[in-house]
Specification:
alpha+beta; Aminopeptidase; Aminopeptidase i, Domain 2; six-stranded antiparallel sheet; 13 helices; 30% helix
């Protein structure tokens, strides 16, 4: 009967049952480092800084681009002409960005606020009333860079977007569609209430500017050349009685970033030249000079490995894992998932053959040969895996950076951990899925 089942039925297995007791112990240990990484890396610049520090500690070669894109490179036994092995993940996450001229005073409420423009796909109602921190950089006209982080330490003040009390929200929120109840222009952050002493038309705003100048040496105009992001202050925590899950902001896609980083740092003498590539701007369509869609960074890395090679022929022989997360089946919204083909927490790393939406539009669709190769690799190494896609055919969909590398002729497939409450300020993952992702990336990179 067991033989018939293995031939005639595909059965999703639990990673908790597939992994050995020793591996589960290692998964819990791996999660501790991952949680620290999440607490200290909430922006793309912070991610690149931590990646640089880790690479230098392990004496790994690293190349960076504009402090928001990085590549760790490990030479292989085989010639570069035989192709590369690349794991690519993205270091940006949905958030609230400050506008160029953000600070204003609302005299009716006696508050100073910062205007924002949300970044990436968010549910706006999830971002009100939660504690927020400000992270980023301010570049003055002189070129001086001020690194800004406020709201993370226990003694720091935090910030928040106000919401309307239920007693008054019936007409303006409760009877509207959820997307209309909270407008993007209303996601303004409260930053002060105390007025400067003296006869000022905007005393609260004046007091805030005075404090920023005193504490950081910045003026209101310096906001124009700043990258300041409002992110949740939540610390990464174990979730559940059994501590099997992790709750934190930014796990899409820093779950893959951390797993890929640890995998390439562990690598010693791989068969092929390998690259762990960390890119920006995925959440807004990979547009920009530090994004996967701009291939000059990839080409420069290949040229650096061997200036005399034909780059296009190398890319045709290169194999890639797009290390990005997938949506885990959500228990109270089962109807939008094709459960048989969807991923779930605790099922291991997710193989996503294709992405896109509405008939695989704007998708990467991996070849059957490459999917079979990845299956065989995972099974041989006894790494738990499952299949996944982003919702029922006409219900959803989404894309990753995979399509941009496949356009270059590379073999590409998406492989990453499932995430519950994806794109929310507090996402949930399973420890065994994060660890399975690490094992998968390492197995791939060493091949």
């Amino acid at each position: 009967m067991g033989e018939k089942e293995s031939i005639y039925a595909y059965k999703k297995k639990s990673a908790w049952e597939t992994l050995t007791r020793d591996q589960i112990k290692k998964a819990f240990e791996f999660a501790e480092g991952y949680k620290l990484f999440l607490d200290n890396v909430k922006t793309e610049r912070e991610a690149v800084q931590k990646i640089k520090e880790a690479a230098k500690r392990d004496k790994k070669r690293i190349i960076t681009n504009r402090e928001k894109e990085a590549a760790i490179i490990v030479p292989g036994k085989k010639s570069v002409e035989e192709g590369l092995r690349i794991v690519i993940s993205h270091i940006d996450s949905p958030r609230l960005d400050l506008k160029q001229i953000p600070l204003y005073e609302d005299q009716d409420s006696n508050l100073a606020l910062l205007e924002t423009h949300y970044y990436g796909g968010i549910k706006k109602f999830q971002w009100v009333t939660i504690p927020l921190a400000l992270h980023g950089v301010i570049i003055k006209k002189t070129g001086e860079k001020i690194i800004f982080t406020l709201g993370e330490d226990i003694d720091d003040p935090v910030f928040s977007v106000p919401d309307l009390l239920p007693h008054l929200s019936h007409e303006v929120q409760d009877t509207k569609k959820i997307d209309d109840a909270i407008k993007g222009e209303s996601l303004d952050i409260v930053v002060g209430n105390r007025s400067a002493t003296g006869n000022f038309k905007e005393g609260i705003k004046t007091a805030i500017i005075d404090k920023l100048h005193k504490d950081y040496g910045i003026t209101e105009e310096d906001f124009i050349s700043a990258e300041l992001e409002a992110v949740p202050t939540f610390k990464a925590k174990d979730v559940g009685f059994d501590r099997s899950l992790i709750g934190a902001y930014g796990q899409d896609d820093r779950a893959s970033v951390y797993a890929a980083l640890k995998a390439i740092l562990r690598l010693k003498n791989p068969e092929h030249a390998t690259i762990a590539l960390f890119v920006d701007k995925e959440e807004i369509g990979s547009e920009g000079s530090t994004a996967a869609q701009v291939t000059s960074f990839i080409r420069s890395i290949i040229r650096d490995l061997n200036p005399r090679i034909d780059i296009d022929s190398i890319m045709l022989k290169t194999k890639v894992i797009s290390a990005d997360v997938n949506s885990a089946v959500t228990p109270n919204y089962i109807d939008v998932f094709d459960v048989k083909n969807a991923s779930s927490l605790g099922g291991g790393v997710v193989i996503s053959k294709y992405t896109g939406h509405g008939g695989k539009y704007s998708a990467n669709d991996a070849s059957a040969e490459y999917v079979a190769e990845i299956r065989a690799m995972l099974d041989k190494a006894k790494i738990p895996w499952q299949t996944g896609e982003l919702g029922k055919v006409d219900k959803g969909g989404g894309g990753t950076v995979a399509k941009y590398l496949s356009r270059l002729g590379m073999e590409v497939i998406d492989l990453g951990a499932p995430v519950l409450s994806m794109h929310s300020p507090y996402e949930i993952t399973s420890k065994v899925d994060i660890y399975s992702s690490f094992l998968a990336y390492y197995e791939f990179l060493k091949s």
